[in-house]
Every structure is written in C-alpha cells, then in structure tokens.
Amino acid sequence: MADLMTYAGPAPADGPGTRTGGVPLVPAGFAWPECTECDGAMQFLAQVRLGGDLLSIFMCQNDPGLCDEWDATAGGNRAYLFGADATEPAAVPGEGETLLEEVSAVEVVPVDAPAYPQAAAEWSRRTGRPRSDVLGHLGGEPAWLQFDETPACASCERPMDFVMALEEGHDWHTKINFGGGRGYAFRCAPCRAAAFLWQR
Ligand SMILES: [Zn+2]
Ligand SMILES: [Zn+2]
Predict the structure, then answer these.
(1) Which CATH number do you get for residue 40?
(2) Distance 109 CA to ligand 1 centre (A)
(3) Which DSSP string corresponds to 88-128?
(4) Where are the residues of the annotated region Disordered (predicted)?
C-alpha cells in the first residue's frame, strides 16, 4: 500500500493543509531560512500536515546546482517540524528566489501496490491521468533513486523517520527543481527536527 499525494488543482497560497508552493504557515518569531552557501533567501517548496504537526521544506534556488541544495546537511536546504502554533503566513523576504510560481493542493489516495513506483503507475493507468500528477507519497518506504541516504538526527543521532517523497510537480513550467529527481523528507518527532534531501 502506498499513500500517493496527487495533484488536486490550485490551492490558496496561505492554506493550512498539505500543499506545494504558496507561503508557509509558521510559528511566531520564525526567521525565513538563508542558504549557508550563497547567503540568499531560500525557496519555500512544500508543507505537509502530520496530525498536529506541520513539516515545512525550503531549498536554495538562487544559484541552482551550486549550493549543494540536494544535501541533507550542507546548508543548501532546510526542513522544519512545526507544531500546532504554525498558524500565520511567513513574512516573505523581498529578495531572492523565495516562492514557487504555482500553489498546488494535494489529495492523498491510498493505492494497493507493493511499492511507490508501482502504485504511481497503477494510479495513472486507473485514472487516465499523467504520471506527473503524482506529487509524491506519504510514509511507507522511500523508493531511493540512488543508495539509501536516511539522515541521522542532529540531536539524538538516531536514523530519522521517513515522512514523504516529493516529486518536481505536475507542470514543467512551475515545477520544483530537483534536477529531474525526487525529494525525500524526514523527521525526528521527539527532537522536533526535520531533514530534506533529493536524489536523481
Ligand atoms: Zn544558495
Ligand atoms: Zn532526534
């Protein structure tokens, strides 16, 4: 079984649910993340509702490919695990590549298949919709494009829990830039920590 995240049309830019693009909902006092490589403001990619928590993903796009933005720890991306107090749209910095050009709603569709790639293919076959309308999947096992890169929690050093795989998106004009690859998000709930990486 795989819980596919499928494209569900345009979404409000400040909606509380799982979406790609728009403006992230954040707790009071939140400071928009900056890339440690180029010092530019990062781009908000997606937020994922996990019960009362909200996992939020950012990545540098000021110098695509030059800021180690695929790496979980190099400082070219940033993931947060917010709590129920993440209710206000963040203040968006005036400079840098900060927002995606489209806000996409996500509908989670359980599909009975051995693994994510088969589930995505089965959903596409059954619905007649393009494979690119599958925006990723929630939970289960990550389908690695390369070797297993499950990050360790920076606080407790245990392997983090896989939360979501994220595809580039349904429209190549507005898609996220993973170099044609796929993103992977993780959390350590006890440490209130999150991490993100991508592979191709
Ligand atoms: Zn950068
Ligand atoms: Zn931890």
Answers:
(1) 2.30.320.10
(2) 34
(3) EEPPPPSSSS-B-S--EEEEEEEE-SSSHHHHHHHHHHHH-
(4) 1-20
